[in-house]
Specification:
The protein is of the alpha/beta class and 325 residues long. It contains twelve helices and 15 strands. α8 links the parallel β11 and β12. The relative contact order is 0.16. The strands form three sheets. Strands 3, 4, 5, 6, 7, 14 and 15 form a seven-stranded mixed sheet that branches. A six-stranded parallel sheet has the order 10-9-8-11-12-13, sandwiched between helices. A two-stranded antiparallel sheet has the order 1-2.
Length: 325
């Protein structure tokens, strides 16, 4: 079979190689899956660079989220067991963690429903306890993680403010349903959010960016507001001023979704059932901006690394001849 492999750490476009390899052999409690679609995530970038908290042994195949097909023909969502990731024709995954792919979504959409939407659901509902009528601010609202949070926030009855970088991404955020869109490249984020909220600020802030975005969050968080720290796509990990959190009376909430797979897997299943129901009603639908063939995966991962993608870029091995669909 064909699979992308990383033999040394570096930029994805430089270190990912498409190779012919043997199909992975499932271990105890694992199953072999035919990859129908593999969603690209920022951890794929970080693992290629050697900067992720999980460091699979070299060489490894990236790809942490797929829609796959079991040997008996079932369509499932899975998190492949590294080093045999999803940017390949076949992958392996833990049998106990397989989730049924929602009938309402095609393969690429189903592949993108898992990590980003689970993270959004846990962040907004489990950690921040978002309530209808509250104001939610989402950084990087046109990206894969942010777009999921926007849809889930609207589904929860919140007023959603989306912060984006550039006019094209602003248009995407509006189409997603943001009530207010702030372009950080042409607007003062703090001033714009304060104006949009009548000076009150946002009740919940969803931050997968870190760096300057986090600093902005602390200036616009409302009384008894909650900042959910999801990741550091900017590459800069902020150092919170706890005296500031005390004086302004807000909470800083960390979210590592992967821990729930071991700490409370039943809650992960419950979340998937909630997401499946929302997808069936058309309330959430992953924004798949590109479907690329397997041979275009390295370039796609690099585009995500460079911050030029919107929504989700999904690798579909059945696509051929280098043509995106």
């Amino acid at each position: 079979m064909q699979a992308w492999q990383v033999h040394e750490n570096g930029e994805p476009s430089e270190v990912m190689r498409l190779q012919d390899v043997e199909r992975p052999a499932p271990g105890d409690g694992q199953v072999l899956l035919k990859v129908r679609a593999a969603n690209i995530n920022f951890p794929d970038v970080l693992m290629a660079r050697g900067h992720y908290q999980v460091r699979p042994p070299l060489p490894f195949t990236p790809g942490v989220e797929i829609c796959g097909e079991t040997e008996d023909g079932r369509r499932v969502i899975a998190t492949p067991a590294l080093p045999h990731g999803g940017l390949a024709e076949f992958a392996v995954a833990d049998a106990a963690a397989l989730l049924p792919a929602p009938e309402a979504l095609d393969d690429a959409e189903a592949a993108a429903l898992h990590i980003g939407y689970q993270t959004g659901w846990f962040g907004l509902h489990r950690r921040a306890r978002l309530e209808a009528g509250e104001t939610l601010l989402v950084h990087a609202a046109a990206g894969g993680v942010g777009s999921a949070a926007v849809q889930l926030g609207k589904a929860a009855g919140a007023t959603v403010i989306g912060v984006v970088g550039g006019a094209d991404k602003a248009a995407v955020a509006r189409d997603l349903g943001c009530d207010v869109v702030v372009d950080r490249r042409s607007e003062d984020v703090v001033a714009a959010v304060k104006e949009a909220t009548g000076g009150r600020g946002a009740d919940v802030i969803y931050d997968p960016v870190g760096g300057e975005a986090y600093t902005q969050s602390t200036k616009v968080v409302a009384f008894e507001g909650r900042i959910v720290v999801v990741g550091f796509a900017s590459g800069t990990i902020p150092s919170p001023g706890l005296n500031h959190a005390l004086v302004k009376n807000y909470s800083i909430l960390g979210l590592h979704w992967g821990l729930y797979n071991t700490k409370d897997p039943k809650l992960v299943q419950h979340c998937h059932e909630q997401l499946t129901g929302l997808a069936a009603r058309g309330v959430v639908k992953p924004l798949v901006s590109e479907r690329v063939p397997l041979d275009g995966a390295a370039a796609a991962v690099q585009r995500l690394a460079d911050g030029v993608t919107t929504g989700r870029v999904v690798v579909v091995p059945s696509l051929r001849n280098g043509a995106a669909a």
